[in-house]
Each structure stands twice: as structure tokens, then as C-alpha cells.
Specification:
Helix content is 29%, strand content 26%. By secondary structure, the protein is an alpha/beta fold. It has two domains: 190 residues, FAD/NAD(P)-binding domain (3-Layer(bba) Sandwich), CATH 3.50.50.60; 110 residues, FAD/NAD(P)-binding domain (3-Layer(bba) Sandwich), CATH 3.50.50.60. Strands 1, 2, 3, 4, 5, 6 and 17 form a seven-stranded mixed β-sheet that branches. β1, α1 and β2 form a beta-alpha-beta unit. The longest helix is centred in the C-terminal third of the chain and has 32 residues. It is elongated and about 85 Å long. This is NAD(P)/FAD-dependent oxidoreductase. Pfam families: Pyr_redox_2. It catalyses: [thioredoxin]-dithiol + NADP(+) = [thioredoxin]-disulfide + NADPH + H(+). It comes from Dactylosporangium aurantiacum.
């Protein structure tokens, strides 16, 4: 078993940002990554200062180089088990390897559950979109649609209206009350109550949606509010407290209710964009290094006052 100051589970923006800070703090740090980032389908990321329009894979590749440049270790693999507490955690990988660490940071992200519509999975992150702050500008003033079916979808439609006046809301079979209909009319948002059965694609480009009646509604892009499901099994299995809405609770520095265990990014914050996740990873790294420094100091004092011949 190999010992580290910190093991980071998940090598996305949050995990790599944390690893960079910790490696520069001269901590022995390892990042274990399964290689399946949430934003892999997206061609470009936006709203990240200094990296706007950059392919997300390029950002991660640069981050890995930076972490390794400061002595951080990158380990390809999937973590299947996490146990222990301060001062020693046991991290188990699917291939049988076991790693030890004084502290653990979980940055395993989340997965998006999208509507069961033909073509949806293939177009996800391309012209079936979620975040208007990430992709809205690129489809501004075009023919846009919003798939309904959840309580949040109505609010999402009003948000998408900021980027285009050519907007259609598909109710997904859900009933709209008079106030909701009046608000849509006031903002010029068309409403279609027939179910959407298919995303229509021609020459690798979305051209519209097919309704249950067979009619085609021409569109250039479609937004949907997916159901966010945190990849937090390692955290909940370790006994971390959760909030009223079911997400693992962390403080401003990413500390969970379990001593020595931190979390950052989409694993605990469904609203975190790439730049937000990177910032949360950095904040967690600073908090973890402060915690380790306090422990180092206690050990140094214990050794100083230990009787001769007795190891503290």
C-alpha cells in the first residue's frame, strides 16, 4: 500500500485544481480518475476566464501536465471502496490496488438523466443542451425549444428566453395553469402540448423535433433541464450527512461531516460550472492543507515532549 497526504478521487476541474494547489504546497498527492468526464460530449466550454471556447479535454490535459510538473501523481482507475478515518484512509480500486492517505477529497461529479426521446443521448452536449450560461450565446437568436416535464422546466424556459425571441416550450404532457400561460404569452414564448417523440437530425445537425402527431417543429437547438444525480456513493457509504434535498452537506471549504473527508464540484453542487468546480477544488485544497498542517504541528509537539526512546 502506498501512502499519500491526500488522495483525490476524480480528475475533473475540481480534482485537478485541488491537486495543483496541494502539490505546490509540497504535499504528496495522487489523483485517481476513471476517465469519464461529464462534459466529454461538449466540443467547447464557455464562461471560464482565459479559456473561453477551449475544448474541455484540452483544459484537463493541461491540468494533468501541471499537476505532474509539481510532483503530483495521476492514477488511472475506478475507486470502488473508501474506508477509515483520520489519520489513515484506505482507498480501494477496481483492479485490486489499495492506497492509503491521511485525507481524501471526492470530486466524482454527477450524471445527467435526460428525457427518453429518440436521438436525445446522441445529441446531448451538441444541440441538446442544458446550461444556457455554457451554450446560450452560441445559439443566440436562433430557433430554440425547451422540453418540459419537470417543475423546473417552466423557469428554465423563461431563462432561455434571454438568448432568443424564437422560443417554443413543449409541455411534455404537463398541464399549465392560467398564470403560467399568461407569462409565456407576455414573453412571446410559444407553447406546444403534444409530446415530443424524436429529435430530427440531418447531416449531423439538429433540424427540429417530431411530435406524437407526426408533425415537425423546426428548431436549431433544444434545451432541457435534466435530473441531476450525484456520484456520491463513496461519500454516503462513508456516513456523510446530507441536506434536506439529498445532496451531501459540505462547508465553504468542502469539509463533510466525516473527519478527514472533503468533497467539491458537482458531486455536492449540481449548479457548479467548470470554473466554479475549479474554484471549489482550490478552496478544498487550502482547507485540507491547513488541517494537515495543524496535525503536523501536534505531532511535532508530541515528539518534542516524548520521553527518550519513546516514539510519539
Amino acid at each position: 500500500m502506498n501512502g499519500f497526504d491526500v488522495i483525490i478521487i476524480g480528475g475533473g476541474a475540481a480534482g485537478l485544481s485541488a491537486a495543483l494547489v496541494l502539490a505546490r504546497a509540497r504535499r504528496r498527492v495522487a489523483v485517481v480518475d476513471a476517465g469519464a468526464p461529464r462534459n466529454a460530449p461538449a466540443a467547447h466550454m464557455h464562461g471560464f476566464l482565459g479559456s473561453d471556447g477551449r475544448p474541455p479535454g484540452e483544459l484537463l490535459a493541461a491540468g494533468r501536465r501541471e499537476v505532474e510538473g509539481y510532483g503530483g501523481e495521476l492514477i488511472a482507475g475506478t475507486v470502488t471502496g473508501l474506508s477509515g478515518d483520520v489519520p489513515s484512509f484506505d482507498v480501494r480500486l477496481a483492479d485490486g490496488r489499495r492506497l492509503r492517505a491521511r485525507r481524501v477529497l471526492v470530486t466524482t461529479g454527477l450524471r445527467d438523466e435526460i428525457p427518453d426521446v429518440a436521438g436525445a443521448r446522441e445529441r446531448w452536449g451538441r444541440d441538446l443542451l442544458h446550461c444556457p450560461y455554457c451554450h446560450g450565446y452560441e445559439v443566440r437568436d436562433r430557433r430554440l425549444g425547451v422540453l418540459g416535464g419537470s417543475p423546473e422546466a417552466v423557469t428554465h424556459a423563461h431563462l432561455i428566453r434571454q438568448w432568443s425571441a424564437h422560443l417554443t416550450f413543449f409541455t411534455g404532457g404537463a398541464a399549465l395553469d392560467q398564470l403560467e400561460r399568461a407569462r409565456f404569452r407576455a414573453r412571446g414564448i410559444a407553447v406546444v402540448e403534444q409530446p415530443v417523440t424524436q429529435l430530427v437530425v440531418e447531416e449531423d445537425r439538429l433540424t427540429g423535433v417530431r411530435l406524437a402527431s407526426g408533425d415537425l417543429v423546426p428548431l436549431d437547438a433544444v434545451f432541457v433541464r435534466p435530473r441531476f444525480v450525484a456520484n456520491d456513493t463513496l461519500l454516503t457509504a462513508a456516513g456523510c450527512a446530507v441536506t434536506a434535498d439529498g445532496w451531501v452537506a459540505v462547508d465553504a471549504g468542502g469539509r463533510t461531516s466525516v473527519a478527514g473527508l472533503w468533497a467539491a464540484g458537482n458531486a455536492v453542487n449540481p449548479r457548479a460550472t467548470v470554473i466554479t468546480a475549479a474554484g471549489e477544488g482550490s478552496a478544498a485544497a487550502i482547507a485540507m492543507n491547513n488541517d494537515l498542517t495543524a496535525e503536523d504541528t501536534r505531532h511535532a509537539v508530541d515528539r518534542l515532549h516524548a520521553p527518550k526512546g519513546v516514539l510519539a
